[in-house]
Amino acid sequence: MLKEVSKNIYYLPHDETTDRPTLGYIRGKEFSVMIDSGNSKRHVDLFYNGLKERGLEPPKFVIITHWHWDHTFGIASLNSKVIANKLTNRQLKKIESWKWTDKDMKERLESGEEIEFCDKYIRLEYKDLNEIKVKTADIIFDKSLTLDLGNLHCEILLVGGPHSKDSTIVWIPEEKVLFSGDADCEGCYSGEENYNKYELARYLNILRETEFETYIHGHCEPMSKTKLINELEEELKSL
Ligand SMILES: [Zn+2]
């Protein structure tokens, strides 16, 4: 179930059925790391089964790429320590107090706090809304953080960009791999619905300057840097 990028990098592919994003795994000599917590306990279990099949150790840390539900609602089902930037954590703190009844969810749609797309998929993932538990992170950083896994490093960087102000990327220089969450996508919440040209251009510059070969996206198959840059340049031209 887990796909192999290299002997130290694996991922559980995204699944559109209930909008489950890609979950990443970085195998270190000292400890291992997971990228994003998934959208539910079922999603986390699937990832752990994938680790077991390959004889991989459970991750010591989980790095969150941004606050959106599909990347964070698995946090409550994890034993690992969770790392997030302070913008992500601030948002998680807010959502922690939300109630998950049909009525509360409808009210949030009306107020614009939630969007139709997420409401639909949350209801598809959670037949029983009472199962939803939102938890904040354990380790909070400001702009960047480096993890030394012994044989390789995770460079965690808050980049913002067109999708969400708190978008964080994880770069593994030794493997030339970059996990991006949804950082290059257009925004979806109120006030950020359109593709922000300025933010996309700024994010493109960060990508150009970062040395990687494989880009692992939250909702697409991995792609090469060349293909990614070409596609985003086309997108930028069309805006
Ligand atoms: Zn997202």
TrEMBL record:
Domain Metallo-beta-lactamase residues, every copy: 20-219
Superkingdom: Bacteria
Keyword tRNA processing: no
InterPro entries assigned: Metallo-B-lactamas (IPR001279), NDM-1-like (IPR050855), RibonucZ/Hydroxyglut_hydro (IPR036866)
Signal sequence residues: none
A Pfam family of this chain: Lactamase_B
Keywords: Hydrolase
An example Gene Ontology molecular-function term: hydrolase activity
Coiled-coil boundaries: none
Protein name: MBL fold metallo-hydrolase
Source organism per UniProt: Romboutsia weinsteinii
Lineage: Bacteria, Bacillati, Bacillota, Clostridia, Peptostreptococcales
